Amino acid sequence: MRLAERHPEVDLERLLQGFVPPPRFRSATFAAYRPDPRYPSQALAKERLRSWVRDRPRGLLRSRMPGPQGIYLDGGFGVGKTHLLVAAYLEAPSPKAFLTFEELTYTLGLLGLKEGVRRFSSLRYLFLDEFELDDPGNAQMVTHFLSLAMDRGLRVATTSNTPPGALGEGRFNAEQFRHQIQGLARRFAVERIEGEDFRHRDPGGLPEPWSDGKLLEAFHQDPRPKTLDAFPDLLAHLRALHPIRYRYLLEGVEAVYLRGLEPIQDQNDALRFVHFVDQVYNRGLALRASGVSLGALFPEDYRHGAFAKKYGRALSRLAELLG
User: Fold this and answer.
1) Domain 33-193 = CATH 3.30.70.3040
2) Distance from C-alpha of 314 to C-alpha of 27, rounded to nearest angstrom
3) Model pTM?
4) Domain ranges of the chain
5) Which of 78, 204, 265, 318 pairs with 155 at a CA distance of 20 to 30 A?
6) Distance set, CA 56 to CA 19, 193, 213, 236, 242 (Å)
7) What is the C-alpha to C-alpha distance for residues 317 and 311, in angstroms, rounded to an integer?
8) Strand 96-100 vs strand 125-129: parallel, antiparallel, or unpaired?
9) Low-confidence residues of the chain: pLDDT under 50
10) Mind spelling out the 3-state secondary structure of the chain?
11) Cα separation, 143 vs 322, whole angstroms
């Protein structure tokens, strides 16, 4: 089976019903989160988020929720932000939803802003993973959506690698939307989580992909539902799909084999592959690959440019998957 031969469709109602944590994180409780004692901000963020999600309405004549309406978990990759976000989701009362920023922008595009606000405002809690503003269209739509939905009482917790006041910087002319971005930031209490990548991946010590021979031998011996694709074919196929479909591309698959990793020369292709890696990782799939070393996969100017944190997270996750 080849991923390049699969053409999944997205059904809106099925998409809306699927806003739950991905398989890898479904056992990510507060009890299972182990803060690094060297970084007190980890334990502090855990306790503040747990208290926030356990808040109950106060007041006799006009009940209202205490504390901040939003919690913003800011920190580098591999410090446990998604784990804490899932833990909060698991403890929050229904109705609630957990989705990625990419899924939110796609859903709002399908529903339209008015219907999106209506549907999401019927929830008590929205948990939004990897909040980012990569283009001005998203900046305007999402900031407007969150303002309207939070005005109706929706409580939002989100993770990001970027402080809220700096969203969009380096990606587009964020000054054009500075007022909206700053207005949105005021709705959130920011919890900065310090620490090291728990996967402890050293760019100089990344695992080496296999040879083609070893990869093919392992593929033929693997009894699990699996796919085998040439890396250029996969990139070409991802180009033809909206990233929201990548999760459906992997349905029914337990192991992904990629033959012939090579440097990705186009930044759009590189970002698509980053999103694909996120889906493989979040779904808890096995990944095997042959080709160039991971350090050569993304050009150096990509890894130190505006999307440096995305590439860092992808390399960390690839190292764990291939290690």
Assistant:
1) no
2) 22
3) 0.86
4) 33-193, 199-322
5) 78
6) 24, 25, 59, 49, 39
7) 10
8) parallel
9) 61, 165-177
10) CCHHHCCCCCCHHHHHHCCCCCHHHCCCCCCCCCCCCCCHHHHHHHHHHHHHHCCCCECCCCCECCCCCEEEEEECCCCCHHHHHHHHHHHCCCCEEEEEHHHHHHHHHHHCHHHHHHHHHCCCEEEEECCCCCCHHHHHHHHHHHHHHHHCCCEEEEEECCCHHHCCCCCCCHHHHHHHHHHHHCCEEEEEECCCCCCCCCHHHCCCCECHHHHHHHHHHCCCCEEEEEHHHHHHHHHCCCHHHHHHHCCCCCEEEEEEECCCCCHHHHHHHHHHHHHHHHCCCEEEEEECCHHHCCCHHHHCCCCHHHHHHHHHHHHHHHC
11) 37
Residue 221 structure tokens: 């011996």
pLDDT at 306: 77
